[in-house]
């Protein structure tokens, strides 16, 4: 009886060891494959490190030292005291001093400053006579998060500014009033900030992924070799791949803006043709970057991973989720190298401020430079893959 029962436990032991041996072999195989797939391994390491660095060092939800301008129509001791008191709040950093209302408005429209302080002519004399003149503080409220804290600090400057100029001790009443005017978004509606930003964010994500996957798919299926065996140049292949997605990008932008205007009441104050022209520039830039990604990776999974690697800093450092002016200097430099940063300024300025090309020259030139750089790298990399 015992002689018959012995083989069964032995078979179970052999099967158990066989299971462990085969599982171990598969484990080794996967590690070897992961080692060979260097792009995926780099993404595994870099993504958490990048998120930790960005959220730990670059993101600041309470921005300080915001770029500001002053329309100074009189140069007096009281005016200088008020400006110094504003700077001492740590929310304002005065970069421009203008004497013309048009220059003052252009600085706000172009996005070079977020705040403008107007000190009218005869201000100090009116204060000393007890006329309670008004001090105007204009805020670019297209980004309500950046503007709200700074506007809330304005009430503290009166005692600081006048302590040594007019009174000893606390003044009995405010000798002038501060009128804070939130321009372009007086109600501080988040939809007016988010909807235009979604145009650039969604275009960035879809254009990168569509192009990177489209070209990589051709390589994986072997159809790229047969395509290149035809009498066609690499630039022509790239052009033919990009143009259809430009039309797709137009469709997406039209849907987002149309829904934003119809459902959320987002205004379009600027020129729609200018918005379409600069959107084409932005879409082409992202498509060129996606094409470059496709020449670096080996398969569609790597293309998706690298696209996300580019998209993550774009959404965090462009000013879409967090105030751009609140980031440290190094993060702002990185953000200036991202197409989304410049396009967000463009689309918000055109839709909410009615900005013209004159107000958007810097961001347009920056976007054009990034497009030329991305396209040059894409064509160069594509030609190398053919050699």
Automatic annotation (TrEMBL):
Transmembrane segments: 39-59, 194-215, 242-266, 272-297, 309-331, 364-382
Localization in the cell: Cell membrane
Keyword Membrane in annotation: yes
Keyword set, alphabetical order: Cell membrane, Membrane, Transmembrane, Transmembrane helix, Transport
Transferase recorded as keyword: no
Topology in membrane: Multi-pass membrane protein
Superkingdom of source: Bacteria
ABC transmembrane type-2 domain location: 156-385
Family stated for the protein in its record: Belongs to the ABC-2 integral membrane protein family.
Protein name (Swiss-Prot/TrEMBL): ABC transporter permease
Species of provenance: Bradyrhizobium symbiodeficiens
